[in-house]
Amino acid sequence: MEKPLDWYAEAKSVIDSEISLLNHISISSLTVSDGVYLNIETIENQRFCVLLNKHGFRVVAKAFDQDTNYSQFSYETHFALLSNISKGYCQRFNELIAVKLNEVAGSCTDN
Hints:
Structural class: alpha+beta
Largest sheet: 4 strands, antiparallel
Number of strands: 4
Strand order of the largest sheet: 1-2-3-4
Order of helices and strands: HEEEEHH
Radius of gyration: 16 Å
Shape: globular
Number of helices: 3
Distance between the termini: 50 Å
């Protein structure tokens, strides 16, 4: 029998990986039995409430701590979701990757 997923641990992992690329990301006060809600504010100051569950990531409201059933579309990854809702996220993500690649390239030439 498969162990149930710890949705709060999953959400914490997403928060830790994306906090520097957004204005805000946190676990919402809303509760659901098989998932967790996230409050997300993009670089463009747009607010979303996102449901993370076995179907993926789904925008449920354009405000924090609400589920207005805004969209029925689920994204498989948080990267796909954030890339779709925030051009600024894509730009910051690409800049971060460029910095990391330059660091790796620099360490290769230093040897």
